[in-house]
Task: structure prediction
Amino acid sequence: MNTITLKPAKDKSLVRCHPWIYANAIARVDGNPAPGATVTGRGADGRFLARAAYSPHSQIRACVWTFDEAEPVDHAFFKRRVQRAVAHRRAMIRDTGATRLVFGEADGLSGLIVDHYVADREPHAQLVCQFMATGVEAWKDAIVQTLIAATDCPNVYERSDVSIRQKEGLKQTTGVLAGEAPPPTLITDECGVRHHVDVRHGHKTGFYVDQRDNRGLVAQHAAGREVLNCLLYGRFLAGSAQGRRDQRRVGRGAGARACERRSQRFRRGQSRMARRRRLQDAAPPVRRRPAFRPDRARSAEVRAVEGNRRSRDARVQETST
Result:
C-alpha cells in the first residue's frame, strides 16, 4: 500500500482539514506511488489522516481527496463529487449563461476548474476544464464523462495551458476532450449583458466567471456616470457598465491586440445606447531603472554633509554678530 508518513507535529493542518500536504512535512514514503496515485496519509503515530493524490515533483506533495477512512477513491467517488458540485451551482446561480461548476478545493477536487458556457442566441453549450494537478490529471477521463452526464453538455474543451502544471511535472495542453470544438467567439448572456467569450485563446477559460459579483457592482454604481476602466481585459467590466446605460465610458487597455479585440466586440454589441468611447493602448514603455553608482551615491552624501556644515556655520556666525 502506498503510504506517506508525516513528521511529528506536522499533522496539525490535516487535523484541521487543510487539503494540502507539503513535501517538508513528510518523514517517509512507503511503496512506489506514481504521479497522481492515491496514497494514504498517516501521522507519526500511525493513525489515519487522509487519502490524497501523490505529486512527486511538486512542493505540495499530496492533495487530499478525503478525510474519511471509509471512503474509497474510485470512479464513484468522482461521480459523487462532480454531481454534488453541479447540483449546488444550479441551485444557487441564476440569470447567467456562464457558470463555474467546479472550483477546485471548494468542491473537494483539488486542481480542477470547470466552467460552463451557454450561447445566448445559438444552440451551443460548452464545458471548459483546467486540470492543474496530477491527481485530477490521472482521473481526467472519469471526470469528463461524469461532467457530460451531469450537465447534458457533450462539448468539452481543455484549457490546461497554465504554468502551475510545470511545477506538477505536467506539460501545458489545450484541445477538444469531447464533442465539438468551441466557436471562435461564444456570446453568452449575464444578467442582461451579452459578453463575447474567446474559449480557445482568452484568459483562463475565456472569461472571468468568478468576477460575476464585481461586474454586478460595476453595473450598479456606473448608472448615469462616466466610467474609466483602466488596464481592462476584454470588455467584461465595461460591458456591464454599458448595460446600465452609463453616459460615457473610457477604456484604457494593456496592448494593441486587446484594444482591437475590444473594439470588435463593441462593434458587434447589441446595446441601443450611444456608444461614446475611446480605446487606446495604456501600457507605457517600460522604463529601465538606472544602475546603482556607489561613487555618485557617495558624492551626494558628501555634498549633503557639507551643505549641513555650511548652514550650521552660517547660523553660528549670525549668532555671534
Summary: The two ends are 94 Å apart (CA to CA). The longest strand covers residues 48-54. The chain has three domains: 3-66, 75-184, 208-281.
